[in-house]
């Protein structure tokens, strides 16, 4: 890495770019479809870059509102950064699309009740 090249650690840079800016800067292109944004989201999630993962999953569901997998992993990323309300919203979208696996997480994340 050269001295002037930005690091992957967005915290050390002082400012955090969104997923699109990161991709343009480092790869020179951005996805043009829901699946591309979904796969970018998974990549950012695996790197524990949850803010960019959430940004990517939001773009994915904008292009394909029926992609319950994007809602599912977006919810997990929201939980990781303590955005519980956003996680609950994403999980509700996922279960509304008949994804049965998210019922458990939705119950676990939901406050109150026995």
Automatic annotation (TrEMBL):
<dbReference type="InterPro" id="IPR019734">
    <property type="entry name" value="TPR_rpt"/>
</dbReference>
<keyword id="KW-0802">TPR repeat</keyword>
<feature type="repeat" description="TPR">
    <location>
        <begin position="34"/>
        <end position="67"/>
    </location>
</feature>
<dbReference type="InterPro" id="IPR011990">
    <property type="entry name" value="TPR-like_helical_dom_sf"/>
</dbReference>
<protein>
    <submittedName>
        <fullName>Uncharacterized protein</fullName>
    </submittedName>
</protein>
<dbReference type="Pfam" id="PF14559">
    <property type="entry name" value="TPR_19"/>
</dbReference>
């Amino acid at each position: 890495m050269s001295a002037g090249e930005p690091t992957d650690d967005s915290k050390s840079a002082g400012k955090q770019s969104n997923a699109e800016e990161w991709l343009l800067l480092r790869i020179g292109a951005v996805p043009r479809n829901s699946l591309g944004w979904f796969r970018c989201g998974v990549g950012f999630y695996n790197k524990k870059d949850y803010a960019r993962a959430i940004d990517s999953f939001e773009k994915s569901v904008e292009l394909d509102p029926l992609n319950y997998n994007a809602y599912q992993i977006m919810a997990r990323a929201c939980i990781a950064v303590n955005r519980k309300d956003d996680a609950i919203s994403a999980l509700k979208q996922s279960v509304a699309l008949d994804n049965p696996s998210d019922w458990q997480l939705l119950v676990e994340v939901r406050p109150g009740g026995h």
